[in-house]
Design a protein that fits this description.
Elements: H1 3-19, H2 28-42, H3 47-56, H4 62-71, H5 82-98, E1 104-109, H6 115-130, E2 139-145, H7 148-156, E3 158-160, H8 161-164, H9 170-176, E4 177-179, E5 184-187, H10 189-192, E6 195-199, E7 212-216, H11 226-239, E8 240-247, E9 261-265, E10 270-274
Parallel strand pairs: 1-2, 1-7, 2-6, 7-8
Antiparallel strand pairs: 3-5, 4-5, 8-10, 9-10
Length: about 280
């Protein structure tokens, strides 16, 4: 094994321990594209040197910067469409009926650049407009991500025209956003105030999160090993109220765990109900 491969292997081990992400053996190009700029700024010549510096200088903040760079993803508004239609047409009415007089709690896990939790908030607003008075206690969305940079950007609720173009209809742009200058828009306060952003690692304890009626954990589990994925799904189950719902990504399936989740065919799409 060449030094380069050995360095990459060390880095793979570090990343899986730090945040559970399992890098494929052929993903050197991804590491290079994500870390080149950071390594240049820090005067670090190789991946091996990077790993060594993170180990010998744990308080330097370098570890956080590296994890940040490796876990940052742009995402879409109303990604795959059907989860938000299922939320409005099936899940919200069911959960309101099952929890009368209670505020609904929704978790957006690994919320990335904020499009998912804000899309959920817009979907709740649309539900309220067509079902006046049904969601009396409202809903709280807890959005978590590992990346502190992403969370700072999310909280501002501001997006440029490139981000806006990714899945947002003209109608929703006009209804839910205010222009903030050339090529920039800000989410209106009522949509933003429903979302609370928190820094959170899916490998850490879930105890402080509390219980949820609905969990969105979409397009996240693909980055983990089978064992870590199973562990996360078990722990998500622990945060769901009995009868609560889990939304996974369109290409993700929940294999196993029949004692914990029941598959619900929604046509289109599949969601999972906690037993």
């Amino acid at each position: 094994m060449s030094t380069g491969n050995l360095d990459f292997e060390q880095f793979r081990v570090f990343l899986e321990k730090a945040c559970g992400i399992l890098l494929g053996e052929n993903k050197q190009y991804l590491v290079s594209s994500r870390l080149n700029k950071l390594m240049e700024q820090q005067g670090i010549k190789s991946l091996g040197d990077l790993v060594q510096r993170m180990q010998t200088q744990p308080r330097s903040g370098l570890r956080e910067l590296v994890v940040d760079a490796m876990t940052t993803n742009e995402t879409l508004w109303f990604r795959d469409t059907y989860p938000f239609e299922v939320l409005k047409g099936k899940v919200l009415p069911e959960q309101i009926k099952a929890n009368p007089g209670q505020r609904l709690r929704i978790w957006s896990a690994a919320c990335s650049s904020g499009q998912e939790p804000y899309s959920i908030s817009m979907a709740i607003d649309e539900f309220e407009r067509s079902n006046i008075g049904q969601l009396k206690q409202g809903a709280q969305i807890v959005a978590t991500d590992l990346s502190s940079t992403m969370l700072t950007n999310c909280k501002s609720g501001e997006y440029d025209s490139l981000a806006i173009a990714r899945g947002l209809s003209q109608e929703r742009l006009q209804r839910y956003f205010d222009p903030k200058g050339p090529g920039r828009w800000a989410i209106k306060a009522p949509i933003r105030s429903r979302v609370e952003f928190r820094s959170f690692n899916l490998l850490d304890s879930y105890a402080a999160l509390g219980k949820f009626d609905i969990v969105f954990c979409r397009n996240v589990l693909i980055y983990f090993s089978a064992q870590v994925k199973r562990d996360i799904l078990m722990r998500i189950h622990g945060t769901l109220k009995p009868g609560g719902y889990l939304f996974l990504g369109a290409s993700e399936a929940l294999n196993g765990l029949p004692d914990h989740y029941q598959m619900v065919q929604c046509n289109p799409g599949i969601i999972y109900q906690a037993k």
